[in-house]
């Protein structure tokens, strides 16, 4: 039987709470399509546990599990109604099984059910985001390995600063993305915990086996406090914060590629560019502009989530119905942006001659000359004064004679009292300047090769960790299928 009006929803909500003008406003059924499959998995694991613990009869469990198969085959669009996907699936099961279908909800609440479904789905999305970030790191590493000796201008405040290499520049972003991955992996560890069995927030008197359900769903552990398990959404905040940080890294890379495209220092592939609708000569780095914009979207989603969560009392509040959409939107956008950035980097062309010609612009080797004098024994500030005055007397990079004349004025002695003319010439040359900067993490080819080796090792380890996480989820899904098959 169903409710008095023949509607199974009436059994779940009772007639008093089944209608009214606010029903549509309260419903999240359409938005819950994303967690439809997650809810089915959570339902199955819960029913298997209920039967294993003799909380419900095996034949009832079999009927419910068979009904869930029917619901899955029909799809989300076939759900007839309800405040959310969880209620709608339960109503569909009751329609198929009859009143015994309601036993599916024994020893749980929608509170712990919803929290579990969100975690179940989001962890897959986080692994997808990690895959996209890993692909970007691989693209940065491989492109960098081709340009360890490609000298280019480096900037601070968008002003020519010091020469560097394309490899050094790209690896600066690879290292940042590696930290983004580390944050996402830490978030995944805390995300991958099971709230199921906490019920509304105060646990349950039934003899449930929370560990069994956790294992069947591929979670690493169960959450210890039932109130915390049902109420908290800090896993959304942590995941979205990590995604937003990653989006900001992507935005910086995109901005640099846009600027470099403008200067002719890089040419993006046609696949990652577009032309004007009216100016046929143009080639615009549109994809990078959109990648840059994703950071703003992610910051907005994080702000929306944090504002929703701020000041909520324990334990469950309906505000939380609107919390998880922020994380889901951001994980999709940021993952796509990372994938686009990876493709753009892998297919870009770096014109070596143009880069080398610009590497010395703005007397970018000035610091190298000052360092040379300091290494010869002059106080660095004195050396800085000599080089600064030489720059002021020159329209571009000063020659050796100008530097010697300034040294005579400032120091009262020739520059060559301290260094040789050949050494100064080498310090003024961008390529030689880069080669001299061989400290750990520096742009010298040997230092870059060491960074490349570290980056490759880290990339391999992180890829293995993500693969292991996926394998664990796959194995759990297979085990759940086997358990369900033993009933159906």
TrEMBL record:
Q: In which pathway does it act?
A: Amino-acid biosynthesis; L-arginine biosynthesis; L-arginine from L-ornithine and carbamoyl phosphate: step 3/3
Report whether Amino-acid biosynthesis shows up as a keyword of the record: yes
Where in or outside the cell it occurs: the entry states:
Cytoplasm
Q: Please name the Gene3D superfamilies in this protein's record.
A: Fumarase/aspartase (C-terminal domain), Fumarase/aspartase (Central domain), Fumarase/aspartase (N-terminal domain)
Per the database record, which ranges form the Fumarate lyase N-terminal domain? Answer: 48-300
For the Argininosuccinate lyase C-terminal domain, which residue ranges apply? 363-435
Q: SUPFAM superfamilies, from UniProt?
A: L-aspartase-like (SSF48557)
GO MF terms listed in the record are: argininosuccinate lyase activity
Query: What GO biological process terms are annotated to this protein in UniProt?
Result: L-arginine biosynthetic process via ornithine
- List the catalysed reactions: 2-(N(omega)-L-arginino)succinate = fumarate + L-arginine
Q: What is its EC number?
A: 4.3.2.1
Q: Which InterPro entries match?
A: Arg_succ_lyase_C (IPR029419), Argininosuccinate_lyase (IPR009049), Fumarase/histidase_N (IPR024083), Fumarate_lyase_fam (IPR000362), Fumarate_lyase_N (IPR022761), L-Aspartase-like (IPR008948)
What keywords would UniProt list here?
Amino-acid biosynthesis, Arginine biosynthesis, Cytoplasm, Lyase
Q: Name one GO cellular component term.
A: cytosol
Keyword Cell membrane attributed: no
Protein family per UniProt: Belongs to the lyase 1 family. Argininosuccinate lyase subfamily.
Q: Which NCBIfam families does the entry mention?
A: argH
The protein depicted here goes by the name Argininosuccinate lyase
Which species is the source of this protein? Haloferax litoreum
Q: Which gene encodes it?
A: argH
């Amino acid at each position: 039987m169903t409710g008095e009006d023949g509607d199974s929803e009436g059994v779940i909500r009772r007639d008093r709470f089944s209608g009214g003008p606010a029903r549509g406003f309260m419903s999240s059924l359409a938005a819950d399509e994303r967690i439809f499959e997650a809810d089915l998995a959570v339902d199955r694991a819960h029913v298997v546990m209920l039967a294993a613990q003799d909380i419900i009869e095996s034949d009832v469990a079999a009927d419910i599990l068979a009904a869930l198969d029917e619901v899955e085959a029909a799809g989300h669009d076939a759900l007839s109604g309800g405040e959310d996907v969880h209620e709608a699936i339960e109503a569909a099961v009751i329609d198929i099984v009859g009143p015994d279908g309601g036993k599916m909800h024994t020893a749980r609440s929608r509170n712990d059910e919803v929290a579990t479904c969100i975690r179940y789905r989001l962890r897959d999305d986080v692994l997808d985001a990690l895959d996209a970030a890993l692909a970007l790191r691989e693209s940065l590493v491989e492109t960098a390995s081709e340009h360890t000796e490609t000298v280019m201008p480096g900037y601070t405040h968008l002003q020519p600063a010091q020469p560097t290499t394309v490899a050094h520049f790209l690896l600066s972003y690879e290292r940042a993305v590696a930290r983004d991955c580390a944050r996402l992996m830490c978030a995944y560890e805390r995300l991958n915990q099971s709230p199921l069995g906490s019920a509304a927030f105060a646990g349950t008197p039934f003899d449930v086996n929370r560990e069994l359900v956790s294992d069947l769903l591929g979670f690493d552990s169960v959450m210890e406090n039932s109130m915390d398990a049902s109420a908290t959404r800090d896993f959304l905040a942590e995941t979205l914060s990590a995604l937003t940080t990653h989006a900001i890294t992507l935005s910086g890379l995109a901005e640099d590629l846009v600027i470099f495209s403008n200067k002719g220092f890089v040419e993006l592939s046609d696949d990652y560019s577009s032309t004007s609708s009216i100016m046929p000569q143009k080639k615009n780095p549109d994809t990078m502009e959109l990648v840059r914009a994703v950071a703003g979207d992610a910051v907005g989603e994080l702000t929306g989530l944090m504002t929703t969560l701020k000041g909520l009392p324990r334990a469950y509040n309906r505000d939380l119905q609107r919390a998880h959409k922020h994380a889901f939107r951001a994980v999709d956008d940021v993952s796509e942006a990372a994938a686009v950035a990876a493709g753009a980097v892998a297919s870009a062309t770096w014109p070596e001659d143009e880069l080398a010609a610009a590497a010395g612009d703005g007397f970018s080797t000035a610091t190298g000359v000052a360092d040379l004098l300091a290494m010869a024994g002059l106080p660095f500030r004195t050396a800085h004064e000599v080089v600064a005055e030489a720059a002021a007397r020159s329209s571009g990079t000063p020659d050796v004679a100008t530097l010697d004349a300034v040294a005579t004025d400032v120091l009262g002695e020739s520059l060559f009292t301290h260094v040789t003319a050949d050494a100064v010439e080498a310090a003024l040359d961008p390529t030689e300047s880069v080669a001299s900067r061989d400290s750990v993490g520096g742009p010298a080819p040997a230092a870059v090769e060491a960074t490349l080796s570290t980056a490759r090792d880290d990339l391999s380890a992180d890829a293995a960790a993500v693969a292991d996480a996926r394998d664990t989820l796959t194995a759990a899904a297979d085990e759940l299928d086997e358990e369900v098959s033993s009933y159906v």
